[in-house]
Structures are given as C-alpha cells and as structure tokens.
Batch of 4 targets.
Target 1
Amino acid sequence: MADLVNTYRAERLRTNAAVSRATVRAWDRLHLEQGEAITETLRLVEAGQARAVQLADGYLAARRRQARAGSSAPAGLDADRYTVARLRRADAREVYSRPFGALAGQLAQGSPLPAALASGRASVARLALTDLQLAQTHAARDWMAEPANQVYGYERVLGGGESCPLCVVASQQIYYREDLMPIHERCQCSVSPLFGEHPGGGNVPRERDSGVRVVDDPEIGPRLMGEGWAA
C-alpha cells in the first residue's frame, strides 16, 4: 500500500509543480494583458484539474483492488464536474482577476513594480494550487461516496516535504466517506480510503482542543484554521 500511496503523491506533486510553473510563466509574460492572461491561466489550471481527477480516480480504484473490494478499473469521473467555476461556485474569470486587482492596488499605494509583480505572481500560483487541490478532494469524496466502492471512511495523508501543523493535527482523525476533506490554500494532502464495514463509533469531533478548527469557506468549502484566526 505504501508504494501506491507514495507513487500517487509523487504524481500529484509533479502535476502541481508543473501547473504552478506554467501559471507563473503566463503571469510574467501576460500581466499587461489581463484578459489574455486569465484565459491562458484558466486553460492551464483546468487541464491540471482534469489530471488531478484522473489521478484520484486511478489511485482510489487501485486501492480498492488492493483491499480486495473490487476491480482496479477507474470509475471514469467526469472532469467537467471539477472545474474552477463548479468547485468554487464563483465566476472563474473573476477569481483569476483578483491578482490583477491586487497588483493595481499595490501600485496605487506606491509599491515598487517588481514587488507588486512578485506579489501577483505568488497569488496566481496560490490560486492554481488550491484549485488543483479542490479538484482532488471533491473527486475523492465523490468516488468514495459510491456505495459500490465499499468505503466507510478515510484518513488524511500528508503531502510531501514538511507538512504544516494544521494538516498534521487534521491527519490524526478518521473522516466519514461523505466528508469533504478540509484544506487550506496550497494544501497538498490526499486521502487513504478505509474499505469494508464501519468498525463502530464515530469520527473524532472536528473541533476540539487541538489548536485547529474547521470553518466553511464560501468558495473552497471546509477550511483548516488555526486557533484564534479570523474566519
């Protein structure tokens, strides 16, 4: 199982890095042409989302096979259900216009152009990585919710490298299959499905004395927050 989890993680991180680099290059090349930049960025992000859905579908099916709960054939999740507009429930072009608004605002306040451009570049990359993560979490939730897949819950699998403290705490509980995994911006965690019959009991309460809480973000859904952070 560990090899499959690690392979899936590596493929996801490779996709995330490629999309992040491409969106940054698009920003550097097209930041003076907002409409064209947004069109190109959305093309890159939604191609990455389609890849994230494909990877999640294949990984979960392979896990099902390992658990002897069914075949390893992917479900064939429809990538069109996991686009920026559908997942955020917002206009995709408006979402990706935000870095340009921030750029204009910083310049109006007297920030040097290189600093303002760097801030916009980071904002575009942050949006892109979050949208790829949303595609993965929603696809995984939908796959696991199918009764035929015999999943009763899942565990959170930390992303590569040094994980943030919020994710470390959130990984110490079991979630029901219908729960959408709470994330934060740039989050790169994934899921490990639990197959078979529920052993009894419930999942650990989402809000506890752990320094972590979950709030419902109108765009990204369940969001991990540190204790004392403003929602």
Target 2
Amino acid sequence: MRDRHRTFLAVCFAGALVIATAGVATAITTISGSGTSWSPTRVSVSAGSSVKWTATSGNHRIKSWGGNWTWSRSLDAGTSRRHDFPSSGTFKFVCTIHGSVAGGVCSGMCGKVVVT
C-alpha cells in the first residue's frame, strides 16, 4: 500500500510540473537584417533562449561558421527565422550574400550569439 501511495504522489508531482512549465515562454532576442548589416551584430542570451533573425529589407542567407554549430536559413524581406540555443557557447553567423569568411575571418555582414 505504501508503494502505491508513493507512486501516486510521484505521478501527481510530475503532472503538476508539466502543467506548471507548459505556459513558460522562451526568451526571444531579435537580430534585424537591413541592407548589408545586422543590428545588433552581437547578442548575449541565456542558455535555453531563442534568437530570431528578421529581414527588415533585402534578402539574406544566414549561415553558421566557426565550427561549433551548423545552421543555414534564407530570409526574404519581411520574413523571420528562429533558432533555439540550449547550451552555452559562442555561435558565429554570416549572410553569405553580403559577407564572407576567408582564413577564419569574417567580413561584411557578420555577427555572433554569445550564450551563457
């Protein structure tokens, strides 16, 4: 009987935890692409946060670089793309239309997300 009581309490606790966290929103930071630049070019977010890239003008192709993540998205003017960052690190990105990476150096439309 005691084991069933413990199991019942464990199931109730787990269900309450799921219900309590279901409405929690992820923090979202926005980076805007306009012309040939990002604004801001560097953002700092907490692990578990999301970053949203928005093309306020022009078309952009976002691509990760630097070796610690793989991500690539196209943005037409007026559209957005979002990426979740579950763990810490520095994540660099470039618009391959308005920037380039050569010899480990990014020039043009480059940026980074620092996750702590």
Target 3
Amino acid sequence: HPDFCKIWVVDRTFNKWDEALNEFGTAMQQFRQRYKPDYQNVKDAVQGSGKLQPVKRAAFGLPIVFYYRSLGQSVVLEGTEHDRRASPLIVRVVKLADGKCALVLLHFVAPLLPADEQLSLRRGNTEIAKTQQPDDAILGKFVAQLRSSLEKLLNVTGW
C-alpha cells in the first residue's frame, strides 16, 4: 500500500550489476557524508555542549559511527534500547531480459524505533548525550537528489 511502501525504478539501465550499485553507492555516500547540520551537531555534543538535536541521518538506519579526525575521537549513535536498525530504504539490482541491470528502490514507511525510545550518543560505554528520533523527511530529500544525479525515477503505484 502506498501509505506503507514507496517503490521507484531508476529510468536507466546499466551494463553490469556492480556498475549500478556503484552509481547508487556514490550518490548515497555524497549525500550522507558530513550531512549538515548532523556533522556539526554531533561534533558540538562531543566537545561538551550537552545538547544534541535530532540527527536526521539516523532515518537511514542505526548505528552511525562518527569519527572526528580533528578531535581524534569516534562516537556511536544508537537507540537507548536497540543498538541496530536496518535502513528502511532497500536497494535492489534487477537483471532485465536483455541482460542489462536496473535499480529498484523500496522505502518502507515505518517508525525508526518504538515511539518512546530516544537516541543515545556514546563514546565507548559512556553516554555523551540523548536526543529524539528524527522523522524520515531526509529519505525524501535523498530520493529527490537521486532524480537529478542518476536519472528519472519512475514511481510505482498500486498493482
């Protein structure tokens, strides 16, 4: 049902499965890397601000490891009760009848974690800060960016 699952097919074919996956991976890495304001938000908390705004990138799944070379530190963002959460965005490379490959994206619309659970920023076993869960708006922004970096995305609605 469209309220619970969104499906897109990238309107472009690839000669090999790894070419398709590399294109998608590069686009995702560029989008997520040092995503503002998450990067600075977490860095400020690591430096002792005591405040942590919701980390929007968490909508892609948990845990997230942040490494700050300038501080020589790494921290992990995870749920207070659940340390792992698979991404609700699934990428599938599909082989077509002509031997080429296509990318299919599925976004399962569901809460990241139980509604009352917070996210915890930890250095080792020490909790640095807590924050609320983000909404999944960042997934929509990522899909919109894919529309311009890969090709048109064809919405699949209903069967």
Target 4
Amino acid sequence: MPEAFITPHVLSWARKRAQFSTDDAAQRVKVRPEQFLAWEEGKKRPTFRQAKLLAKAFHVPFGYFFLPAPPKQEPDIPDLRTVGSRTMPGFSLEFLDLYNDILRKQDWFREYRMQEGAQPLPFIGKYSATDDYRVVAANIRQVLSVDEARSSARNWEQFIACLIEQAEDAGILVMRNSIVGNDTHRPLSVDEFRGFALSDPVAPLIFINSRDAKSAQIFTLAHELVHLWIGQSGVSNPLLNREKKGKRGKKVETFCNRTAAEVLVPETQFLVDWDNEIPAQENIALLAQQYRVSQLVIARRGYDLNVLPYDVLQDFYRQAVQYDRKKKEKLSESAGGPKSDTMRKFRNGKLFSQAVAAAALEGRLLLRDAGSLLGIKPASLKQYADFLTGK
C-alpha cells in the first residue's frame, strides 16, 4: 500500500482540533499509539487508506493533510455571544464545520442571484445600531408584513412559519438545523449559540439552531433579522442575555434584542395590555395568545420592561425545554419524525432549495454539485424538486 506524504504538523493540528488523544486516533486506524506518534513526528507515514480514515474521523478534508501548514480556522464573523457577564470561549469543531458549510451555500446563492440580475436588497444595512430601535422595528414589520402574518396565524407555531415565509419572499435565506449537515452524531449546542446572521446585499442569510426550544426560536429569528437591517453579521446567543453596558459588540446585541422584542411585541401596546391586577402567569398566557408568540417571548418582553424578574424568564425557558423534550419523546414513540424531504426543506430553507433545484434541472448546475449543496443523492433531486412545488 503506497504511503501518504502528509504534513506531520497538519496531522497533529487535525487531531487536536478534533479533541482526540493519540491513543484515540491510533485506535481509529488500528495501529499502536507509538506508531501514530511517529506519523506526527514525521518519522513514518500512514498509508493512503489510513490517512483517509483519519480525515473522516477528524472531520477534515483529506487534502488538508498535504497542505504545508494548517488552514486558518477562526470564522470571520463577529462573536457576540455572552452568558451572564462572561464572553463565551472559542467555537467548537461542530460550529466551525457548520459555518463553513453555510458560507459555501451562501456563496453559491450569491453567484446564482447575480447571474439572475438581482439588485441589492434595499433594507439590508438600511439602519445602524445608533438609530431609534422603534423606527427599525417598524420598518421590519412593514417589509415582512408582520402584523398581517400575526393576524392570519392561529398560534405562535404558525406565526414563526409565516415570518420565515415572508423573510424568504423578501430574499432572505433562512436555514435551521440541530446537527452538522446530515450527521446525527454531531449535534449543535444551544449553550454555544442560538443563531447567526450573515449580512449581504443580495444573499443575506439567517441560521437558527433548531436544537433550541421551538418557542425560543421566534425571538432568535427576530434578533437575526435586526442584524441584517443594520448590516451587521454576528453569531448570537440572544434570548436569555442580560442587558448591560460595555463594548461595541455588546451594544449591538442590546440593540438587536430591544428591536427584536419591539418587532414581536410593541412596547407601548404591551404596557397597556399588561394588567397589574392579575398574576404574572395569567398575564403571560393571555398576551401570548394575543400577540401570537410563545409565553417565553412574552416573559422576555416582561423582563425587558421591568415587570418580570430575570429568574422568572429563566424558569419559562426551562419549562420550554422540558416541553420540547417530552414532545420529542412522544413523537419517537409514535409514527416517527418528519419525512426526509420536509427535513431537507427545513434545513436548507425553501428559497435556497428552489434555487439549487431549478439550476440543476435547467442544466446550469451539475446534479452532483446540487446534491452536495442540498445534502441529497443526485438521483433524488427530481423528487425533491416536485415536493418543493407541491406535486
């Protein structure tokens, strides 16, 4: 078997990046730890088969092993995540791989839109974080017809579905996933991030971590929309953040939180509707129904406007997580989860899916490349395209 002339310190970098010990790495290719160590020190070389197994185990492209030096891995997106008063640590391998995949999709869609003669979307970067948040919120509500979506929805689940549809109709890519690609062994962490926005004049994108409580995702969506309206990309952990003074990035997050809350539940009307004569729980239940948002979002609004303490907001989030967990357990005991085409549309978004499918079926994109972008077998693309059009 021919040897793979890999770069030893790239192999070492890949192992450490994947948080493998030398013993763990050696076990993956069924060699002794001292033999693997010899590969890292450049004294020996693995076979091509062994190197490919390591690339798969370390979640890196096989070609990386032959680079003269490790590639740059830190994402070029502002890190706006906080927990309490602490800044979050660096990004996980799962986030980095997810982010790179999302960037690949956005790059393709941008080029596709440019070829279609798309013009810059007028609302991207229309405002800044120094503008009146109420003005920004009013513009978001107008562009996305938020009030009409609210009146047509029967509950908050329908409301968030309507908002996503309106956002995609306006030209915003919206993707949701709880794992890296289609790999169920690589879950995303809510503790690490809840969502991110990639501002772009023709291919703006929002990603929502769907491992989060479903009732929390509507606030994340609104928060990331604000990021686009002020033309600021960023990865966020918004729902439970306390408002605080500090660096510019934190001011951006405070602005996005405040504006998102105003989009979903306007302050003036909320203060009129909140009844101090009845218990907080009753208030929250009534207003959640009225505004077509979850009780968790109403609790967040109550915290923003100083009618609820922070620990009550946290309690609502814990309840939402427990509710989701029980719902998933019941689903797994019944007929199972959503069908594969439904899940692909959920993960890739309808706007992106339709663009890729159309390009492939028109012969402008290889079926192989379309399958790679959508995470689908090329042979199933026609079926998926029919699903998207309701056939």
